[in-house]
Design a protein that fits this description.
By secondary structure, the protein is mainly beta. It has helices spanning 210-227, 240-247, 251-263; strands spanning 6-15, 18-22, 31-34, 47-54, 60-63, 74-82, 86-90, 97-100, 113-120, 126-129, 148-157, 161-166, 170-175, 188-196, 202-205, 231-232, 267-269, 274-276. Helix 1 packs across helix 3.
Amino acid sequence: MQLGKYQKLEIIKKVEFGVYLAESRGEEERVLLPKAQVPVNAVIGDRIEVFLYRDSKDRMIATTARPKLTLGGLAALRVSQVGKIGAFLDWGLEKDLFLPYKEMKGKVREGDEVLVTLYIDKSQRLAASMRHIYDLLLTDSPYQTGDTVKGRVYEFGHDYGTFVAVDDRYSAMIPRSEDASDLRIGQVIEARVTHVKEDGKLDISRRGTAVEQMDADAQKVLRVIDEFAGVLPFNDKASPEIIMRELQMSKAAFKRAVGHLYKQRLIEITEKSIRRIK
């Protein structure tokens, strides 16, 4: 018998509070299927597909209910409660699924939906984990460059970017050059596929195409210049880190926006600054 999986087990004994199941008659290992879960007209010898987990008293128990997640799988589950030792997730069974703090990849709140996998911990209990999601995602998505997709944020990899599960199934990433400070773990976003890598993983962006985004970026640059009293204390030769810190955009996007404003004669560029022309 295996925790966290569906199995077909045989009814070997009926009792007042349910039936006992085993892999076959004569097996010593058996598990209870509570009376409320027993199919109508079931008899000894019938085989029933059940899911095995542990109840609130830590006993192995069977259910005919269909949980939203099985061992080694992936699912987005709602956080029903956050406690001192972790969070509890609604996975479709009477007993919520435990998500330990050590298995989280970011802070979660009640009501969030987070992408998790199911594993068996050292105490032989089923638990949820937000770790190792990257290796479980698929790389054969039907999407192509230019497509609009929806995905769930599952990890912030600061050296690489923001990791997203498109359709909660496919591997995707927002590059680190794109500001993601407004995003949260579990948040569902809409983005555009900018590149499909050779291994099938997707690069995505919440920004429009370069042409679509340029006007919006130009207006943002003007607002930041105004916040500096009309003189930005660096120009388009500044480091990418300074530009990201002050404007939350990549150096390439900043240079396009500055060039656009310069052509419109809204700014002048000096050796050390950018000044707004009134």
